Amino acid sequence: MPKCDTCGNDYDKAFTVTMPHGSGTFDSFECAIHKLAPTCEHCGCRIIGHGAEHDGKFYCCASCAKHSGITGIDDRI
């Protein structure tokens, strides 16, 4: 059985995610997010939505970017 790269669980319904810089096998979306999603530079949460990027750094929202001194980023809700 395939083994999850995050938690090590052997699971017959595991799936593989392929990205430009590699791939991984996971037993759940939760494990895939934990391993693959970028982390907000300000609050540390995993970014599972669009987020924001500035100068190679990722933020979960415009508020976190602003708290980090970034200007010119607005959320579009």
Helix content: 10-25%
- Rg, Å, rounded: 15 Å
Largest sheet strand order: 1-2
Structural class computed from helices and strand pairing = alpha+beta
Q: Major β-sheet, in short?
A: 2 strands, antiparallel
Portion in strands: 15-25%
- The number of distinct helices, counting runs of at least 4 residues, comes to 2
> What is the count of β-strands?
4
Organism: Lysobacter auxotrophicus
Protein name: Prokaryotic metallothionein
Walk me through what this model shows:
The protein is α+β, with helices and mostly antiparallel strands and about 80 residues long. The chain has 2 helices and 4 strands, in the order E-E-H-E-E-H. A two-stranded antiparallel ribbon has the order 1-2. Strands 3-4 form a two-stranded antiparallel ribbon. Strand 1 and strand 2 form a beta hairpin. The mean pLDDT is about 95.
